[in-house]
Design a protein that fits this description.
The complex is a heterodimer. Chain A has two helices and eight strands. By secondary structure, chain A is α+β, with helices and mostly antiparallel strands. The longest helix of chain A is centred in the N-terminal third of the chain and has 31 residues. Chain A is elongated and about 90 Å long. Chain B is α+β, with helices and mostly antiparallel strands. Chain B is rod-shaped. Chain B is built from nine helices and twelve strands. In chain B, helix 2 runs antiparallel to helix 3, helix 3 runs antiparallel to helix 4 and helix 4 runs antiparallel to helix 8. Classes of the chains: A alpha+beta, B alpha+beta. The interface between A and B is large, with 66 and 63 residues. Strand 8 of chain A pairs antiparallel with strand 2 of chain B, so a sheet runs across the interface.
Chain lengths: ~180, ~375
């Protein structure tokens, strides 16, 4: 028997997963950059990354006086190969839940202060739980053990600009790194 | 089982909490990015909800009607009861006053009866009864309760005349009682001069007088005239007791005073010894089949004293006329202040067992602006 979870957990988990997945993808990109774009040797001046890995071209360069000379160009490898970088532009989550409704009095109160008065009503004690259920199909008997869902949720997510607070946090951390 | 608003509020709250979980993930990632040499130049993944659609199936388990603001409706009902009581008391007072001036049996109460204090007391009694009824919150129960209570609580406010065919115990403006003799038309003919401080003593005296009349033991003696009060006073022997009775000189007129009192006493003696004639049904009498006790009822003796409920009936008539107005006003106040509340269940198991007609669906959509924060200048932020 699957234990019912709070709706916030069931909704929050896929949303957080999208964010975390993107972070994993970004980390993979960073690792690609580090592995492909830099070569770490014992003599490297940069102890974190090592030396930039370059591709060296040599070609015959014709001088002004008509003579030819072998020239060499070093191009960082990263500038000429595509860096795998994935970003979730839009995500759509849809799922069906079979809700279970605990007694209002026995359900756990929500964290933090609850705003309630006689006009709005106080719902702080009510917390719904649910499990993933199968989509109800009309005129068909219930033949499986799975609970029939009575809540359908569709969430469309898109990349958001960083929040002001997030930008400030990054700046602080960045400066702290530079100062250390 | 909860109210639908509580369930929706819970879901909205869960959505916000879910979004905060995604933001928390972004925050942790931001910290990790900042400490990484390469990732620090990467945008931190952060998602925004563009659109969120929720569809919930629920079962209506109970429909409740509750007062939206019980205190307000109670106050309005209390105000209505206060106004109604004042108006009703004023109308009853006016009619009682009219009765004291037109009905011989109540004339002794004088022109100043009922007093303003009496009206206030009556108004308070009516209001108290109505307020008791208001507690039921049900206009029908309220009315029946009020009707029952009125007859009990208001009775003491109305003086009652005890009356036989020839005598009556009547209230006086001093609060005392007096026994009067009635003529054939029920009009006051003479009065026993003695005053009684309660109706029981007066009734006992009236019964003694009546008994003596029946036995022929009432004898009119000496007569004297009181010019100040313009009355003729006769000493009358009632059994072994001697009492004074008086009649206005105007009523006696040109007749001999002694003859007037003798005639009056003898007529009353005749009247108390005469059995009540039962009118046949065809003359408007009561049908024997409808009378409890069979076909041969005992005629009501003429010396029996009965309560004259004219004044109480008058008040009851006024109340009966006005109560429907109160009922409709009270019903209106109660119906105006009632809200219907649905108790619903979103439990999937309960829904699977619920009757199809009690199952409903609610859909709502939240757009990106529903998750937008406002900055300090109350302008929409860049999020």
């Amino acid at each position: 028997m699957i234990t019912p979870k709070y709706i916030s957990d069931l909704l929050g988990a896929p949303m957080a997963a999208v964010v975390q997945a993107e972070a994993i993808a970004a980390k993979a990109t960073a690792e690609f950059i580090q592995e492909v774009g830099f070569s770490k040797t014992s003599t490297s001046s940069d102890e974190d990354f090592g030396e930039v890995r370059n591709i060296i071209f040599s070609y015959q360069k014709v001088e002004a006086d008509g003579s030819s000379k072998t020239a060499r160009i070093a191009v960082p490898l990263l500038t000429i190969i595509p860096i795998p970088s994935l970003k979730v532009a839009e995500a759509e989550i849809e799922f069906d839940l079979a809700l279970s409704q605990p007694d209002q009095s026995s359900s756990a109160p929500k964290s933090g202060s609850s705003i309630g008065n006689k006009f709005i009503g106080d719902s702080s004690a009510l917390r719904l739980k649910g499990i993933f259920g199968k989509k109800p199909t009309p005129n068909q008997p219930n033949t499986t053990q799975a609970a029939t869902a009575n809540m359908n949720v569709k969430i469309r997510l898109a990349q958001a600009e960083p929040a002001i607070g997030m930008v400030q946090l990054l700046n602080i951390l960045d400066n702290a790194n530079k100062e250390s | 089982m909860s109210q639908l608003n509580g369930i929706i509020a819970s879901i909205l709250s869960d959505i916000n909490e879910a979004k905060s979980k995604a933001d928390e993930a972004s925050r942790e990632i931001a910290k990790a990015y900042a400490s990484d040499q390469i990732l620090r130049y990467f945008p931190v993944p952060r998602i925004g909800i563009q659109n969120l659609e929720v569809e919930i199936k629920y079962a209506v388990t109970r429909v409740e009607e509750k007062p939206a603001n019980p205190a307000l409706s109670k106050q309005r009902l209390a105000d209505l009861a206060a106004n109604f009581s004042k108006e009703t008391a004023a109308e009853i007072k006016s009619q009682v006053k009219n009765l004291t001036q037109t009905n011989e049996l109540y004339k002794g109460l004088g022109n100043s009866y009922p007093s303003d204090d009496w009206e206030k007391s009556l108004s308070e009694q009516i209001e108290d009864t109505l307020l008791e009824g208001i507690k039921t919150n049900d206009p029908i129960k309220m009315t029946s309760l009020v009707k029952d209570s009125f007859s009990k609580s208001l009775q003491p406010l109305f003086p009652v005349v005890q009356k036989s065919a020839s005598l009556a115990v009547v209230p006086l403006e001093t609060g005392e009682f007096q026994v009067i003799g009635l003529d054939k038309k029920g009009q006051s003919e003479f009065a026993i001069n003695e005053r009684f401080d309660d109706s029981a003593k007066a009734l006992a005296e009236a019964k003694l007088f009546s008994e003596s009349l029946k036995k022929g033991k009432v004898e009119v003696g000496a007569i004297k005239k009181d010019t100040d009060t313009k009355t003729e006073i006769a000493k009358v022997k009632v059994g072994n007791k001697e009492v004074e009775i008086s009649a206005s000189s105007q009523k006696i007129g040109a007749a001999n005073s002694k003859a007037f009192f003798d005639k009056s006493v003898s007529e009353k003696a005749l009247a108390v010894n005469k059995s009540t004639v039962i009118k046949p049904v065809w003359m408007g009498g009561i049908s024997s089949v409808r009378r409890p006790g069979g076909n041969n009822p005992t005629p009501n003796p003429k010396d029996d004293f009965e309560e004259d409920r004219t004044m109480v009936q008058l008040a009851e008539r006024v109340l009966a006329k006005k109560m429907p107005l109160f009922e409709s006003s009270a019903s209106k106040i109660l119906s105006e202040n009632v809200v219907t509340k649905l108790q619903v269940s979103v439990d999937s198991e309960a829904i699977s067992k619920a009757k199809p007609e009690s199952i409903a669906t609610i859909r709502f959509t939240l757009g990106s602006q529903d998750f937008t924060l406002l900055d300090d200048d109350n302008k929409t932020s860049i999020l």
